[in-house]
Specification:
The protein is an alpha/beta fold and 314 residues long. Helix content is 44%, strand content 16%. It has a single domain, classed as Alpha-Beta Barrel (TIM Barrel), CATH 3.20.20. α4 links the parallel β2 and β3. α8 packs parallel to α9.
Amino acid sequence: MTPNPTTLSRRSFLRTAEGTLAATWLASAGLSSATSLLAAEGKHRSLKKAVKYGMIKIPGSIEDKFNLIKSLGFLGVEMDAPTSIDKTEAVRARDKTGIQIHGCIDAVHWQTRLSDPDPAVRAKAVETLKLALQDAKFLGATTVLVVPGKFSNPETENYEQVYERSQEGIRKALPVAEQTGVKIAVEVVWNNFITKPDEFVAYLDAFQNPMVGGYLDMSNMLKYGVPDSVWVRKLGKRMLKFDFKGWKHDAAWTPGEKGTWVDIGDGDENWPEVLKALDDIGYHGWATAEVSGGGRKELQDVADRMNRILDLGS
């Protein structure tokens, strides 16, 4: 599909604006680069291992599940929101175990999309995002992960429409984000919408609001042919969090085609380069696995693999 002139104009403008905004932010901090930020803080990279709550597949209470992952060296989880899980029980388990509920995931963002052609569905998506932000505050989370939409139809849900509708929907939820102090973390997925780092940067910078940032899936975006380290460096301070699985190119792969899901550490993610990029932007925060999970044995394997690729030791 050939982008229309309006799309190209917007993208060109936003990419220019992105550079200006980034320079302004760094200047205000008295820094000339993201590397300078890391040096100025006198810190080294600090990553905290987490899992998605649905990966913990054992019987028992939330506290039982939190205790299991704690015993394996995990420090946090992400939970769906709004959720049918007893939030009070979750907070009690958090406080007893020390496992942080660091983030929430919009429970319906893929089916009830901010980009849906039906205005009623879009309105429901906005209300769900607002509820997710409120649940996140209750649980002590700092972000709500949301997929902005899906380019599914060139006539009714195309790039331009996904862009405009999702921007409008997220802006409607921003007052709740500001009230709760919970940031909206836009995730990149296989939705045929944001496929390059510059597009992601432009999309995020269009909000001109620090309550909106990026959630980078390191494995998802390899499909489009740009290395993870490039995504990280382009996003810089905009990257709120990241997650990953394992993804490997097929033998005859070309950018845009599907590859094969593999175990963490067995894919084409270049983790040494990713870690360098994280150092360059001064990233300190959560690294969350997004795989099938299981019981103690499976989660121990996930923990071991994360320790190895993230250079976290045992």
